[in-house]
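Dear colleague,

As promised, here are the two records you asked about, laid out in our usual form so they can be pasted straight into your sheet.

NAME FIELD: protein one
SEQUENCE, THEN STRUCTURE:
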Amino acid sequence: MQDIKNRDFTSLISNKIHYTQRNKIASYFVSKKQNISLSFSEEELIIFYHLLRFGYFDKEIVDLIYTAVTRKSKTPNSWFYRLVGKVNHPILACSDARSGKRKIYYLNKGFSTWLLTMIKGIDKIRLLTTTTEYDRSVYSIVSNNLLGGKPQTVNIHDLETRRLVAKILNKLFFKNQDKSVYDLNIQVVFPISRVNLLMVPDAVVFVNDSPFFIEYDRATERQTILLSKIFGYAEEPAFENSSLFFVFENSRKDNTQVSQRLMNFLEYVNEVEVEGVTGHDMLKRKNISLFSQTTTNASDVIVEIIQERMFSNHKDWCDCEAYDFSEFQKIDYLVKEISEPLDDDKFQLSAVVETDSWELKEYPMVTMTYIKSDLIPHLTSLYEEFSIEYEHMIIVFPKEVLPEKIKLPFDDYFLIVYR
C-alpha cells in the first residue's frame, strides 16, 4: 500500500485512462500482449471498491452492490460474466470454496492494485475512502488485509454477515433515492485487525462517517460469551456514543415469533450482574444503544434505525392511514383519531379509540425502536406507573418488523400497532 501512496499518480493515470467509450474513464489491461482491456465508468470503480472491502463475495452480494450504486433494478449477466475469468481478469472464482451451489468470488490482486491506483487519482472517489483510509486506522484496507487475492478461508458465519451487510447497503441506497453515492458515503468493513482495538465487531457500516456496529450470531456461543461481548464493547472508548446491533440467525420455518435465544440474550443484558453492574447499566453509562433483531427482518429494521438517526425524515404521526391496526381488529377496537397532546403532556401521541362496547376512550401512544435492549424493563416501568391512570397504552413499532411479532409483558394492557 505504501508503494501505491508514493507513486506518481499523474503519470499512471495519463497512461491508463482513456475516453474512447462513453462514460468510461479507466481501462484495465487483461492482456497487454494481446492488447485486451476492460473499460470502467466512475460508478463501476465505486462498485469494485465496495467489492474489495468485502474481501470475498457471491453473485447475490454483487447484485446487491451493483443495483445499489447504479440504482438499476438488476445486474446484467453480461456485465458480471465479462469480468470473471482466469489469471488477470478482475474477478476470479474460488476453486475450493462454495456456499451450497453458489460460487464464491474475489478480486484479482493485480486488478485490486490497479483499482486503488485509479481511485487515488480521482478526487471524488478518493474523498469517499477517507472514512476508513487514514494513518493507524483499524478499518483500513491495509489493516484488514484487503489488497485482493484469494481468501485464506471462507466460513458460513462471515459469508452470512456479508450478505446481511450487502442488503443493508442496498436498502439504504434505495431508501435515499434523492441522495447521490457521494452524499450518502456508505462504507463497510469486516474487521480482522486487533491492533488498537480489543473488541472486533463482525461488521461496521459507516454512513457519512458515522459507524454502526454489527455482531452476527449463529447460535454457536453461550449466552455468557455474548454477555461478555457487551461488557467488552462498553469498556472500549472507541464504541462510546454508538449504535450496536446483535443479529440472531433465524433458521426456523416459523418466522412470526421472536426467537427465544434473542429474548434470553436481552434478559441476560438487563438482569445478570458482573461485580454489581448489569450489561444494560454499562451500555447506558457509555451511551451505547443496543438493538437486537433476527435475520427475518434485520436488514429492514437496521436500515430504519440508521435512517432515523442520520436523516430524521419527518413523519406525520397523526395520519391514521399510515398505521397497521390489524391487532386492534382482533379485539374489535377502532382507532378514530390520533393527535399530538399539549407540550406539557407525558406522551407525544394519543389516540381516540372506539371500544367493542362503542365507547370512545383516549389512550396514550408510545413509539419504540425494535428491539432496543431496555424494551422489557421500559414497558414494565410504564405499566407500573400508568396502568391505574390509563386502561390501555398503545405501543407503536416500525412496520419493518413484520411478519415477526414480539410477545410483550402485560400483553392484555399494551396494544400494538405498526407504522
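NAME FIELD: protein two
SEQUENCE, THEN STRUCTURE:
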Amino acid sequence: MSCPWELRRLKSLDSDLLPPATSFGRLTNFNGLTAVIPTFQDWSQIIYHEPERVPLWIYYFHRKCMTAEIYTLIRAMIGTPNRMEWREHAKGHLPCVLMNLICEEGMFADDVKEVPFRAEFPYKGVLYSIDLVLLFTDSLTKIIAASGLTASGFRLPCFKDVARRMTEYCTTIWNHRQYIQAPIYSNPPNRAEATSSMRISLLTTIPTLVKIRTDMGLPTTRSSHAAHLLLYCWIYDNSPADFGALPCFEFILRESDPEMSGETFVTQAIGSCPEGYATDIAAKFSSLLWDENHKNDNIGTLISACSGIVGPKTDLFSELNFQPRTGLITGIVAACQRYMCTSSPATVRTFLPIAVTVLVAVLKDKNISERKQLPGAMNLVAIVSHALTAAVRDNNRALYRTTETLLGVQTQIVTATLSQKSRRGTAIIQNSARVWHDTLAKLRSTKPKGVAHTALQREAVTTWIRYGSVLGLKEGVDVQTLSGPSIPHDGPWFGMEQRCFYKPCVCSGCHPPHHMRICKGCWRVLYCSKLCQASDWAAGHRKLCQPLNRK
C-alpha cells in the first residue's frame, strides 16, 4: 500500500473491496461473497509469513465492520516482538492506515448503555477507537526499535506521512478528550483501564511525532493541539514513568505560532474544559514545585511549562486558594530558591534568566492572591539581587530589563505590605536590608567594558537605590553584610531557627522550602546543601566549628 492518502479514495469503493490474498484461513461466506478469511489460529502465521498484508487486513475488516475479526488481529499484533515483521508492517504503511482510521468521522462513538449508539456508526465505539490508538502507538515504537532509528534519523516514508497529519490526529482526539480523563463510572467495565492506557499511549506518541517533525524540519506549534493533549494527559496520569511529556510541552510552547497566541491557547486548552481542570493543573504543578525530591535538572522545564500556562491568562488561576507552602505561584519561587541553593554557580548563572522571566510572567497580575506572601515568606528579593548583579556583570541588558520589571513587582508588593505594619512587613525590611548593601557594592565594583556597559551599570545602581529608599535604606548607614562565616546558634540544636546559616544563600533570610542539614562538627548551624556548607567553611566556619565542638 503506498500512502494513506489513497485510503480516502478507496472509501467510495468499499462495496467492491475484496479481502487480501492469503495462504492461511478457510473459505467463508460473508455478505454473499465467498473468500478465504483467517481464523484465530491463522493470525500468528499471517503476521510471521505475510506481515506486509496485515495493514490491508485491518483496513478491510474496518471497512466491512468486522469488529470481532479486527479485535482478534489487534490482540495478535500487540504481542508480536519480531523485528522483521514490524519492518514489513512499516513497508505496508501500518501507522498511516491506523491514523487514517482513527481520524475517520464517527470514531469514538458513545457506547455507554445510557447513551444510544450513533445509528450511522454503530461499530466505531470508544473502546474500539482506543484500541486503534494503542495499536498506533505500539506500531510507532516497535517500528522504531525494529529499524534501529534514532531521534535524528526518522526517514521511513510511513513516519513522514503520519507526522504531516499530526494536527489532524491530535485535533480528532482533543475533540474527544472526555475519554482521556478517568470516568466516574466504568461503563462499559473496561472503560477506566482503557482511558488510562490511552493517556500513557498519547504521552508516548506525541513526543515521538514531534521528534519526527523536528527531524523533517517541520515546527510543531500550539495550533496543532499537541500541547493541548500533552497537558491533559499529563495532568491526569498518575504513573511514575517519565515520558518526556513536559519537556515536549514546553518545547511546543516556545515555537512561534501566528495562528494561535499564548492567551488563545490557554483559553482553548483550559478555559474550554470542565471547571475543575484549572484547579487540577494548579494542584499537579504545585505538588511538583514544592517537592524537594524533584530533580534539579527538571526544574527549569517545570517552571517554564508552568509559566506558559499561568502567564498568558493569570485570571484563570488568580482566585485559587492554597494552604500555606502549597501554592502555585509561591511554589515557583520555592523551586527557584531550591535550585539556586543546591546548584553550582555556573548552573545558577544559566538558570537565572529563565527564573526571572517566569516570575515576571506569573506575577504581573495584581489580583493573584499569593503575591502578598512572597516578599517576607519567600525572600523574593534575594533572587532579584542575584539576577541584577548577574545582568550587570555579564552586560546582559535583556536580563536587566526583566529583572527591573520583577523588582517593580517586588516594590509594589512591599509598598502595600509596609502600610499594614505587620510581621510580614518586618520580614520584608529584614530580608531586603540583609542583601541591599552588598548588592549595591557589587554593582558599583563591576568594571564596565564600553559605553553601553557603563550605562547599564548606572541604570542598575539607580534602580537598586530607588528600591532601598522605599524601605528607608541608605548607602553607608546601618550597613549589613553577607561576608564572613555564619553566626552559630547559641543554644540547643533543636531550638535553632529553620533557615540556612550560610549568609549569601537565598534561603538564609526565610524558612527554606526543603529540609535542612545540620553541621555535625558543632551542631550549631543549619545548611541547605553540601554546597552551602562547603562555602561557609571556606568563608571561615571551619575555624569556629572545632572550638564550638569542644564546649
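A couple of things worth noting about protein two: Residues 1-216 form one domain. The chain has 23 helices and four strands.

Best,
R.
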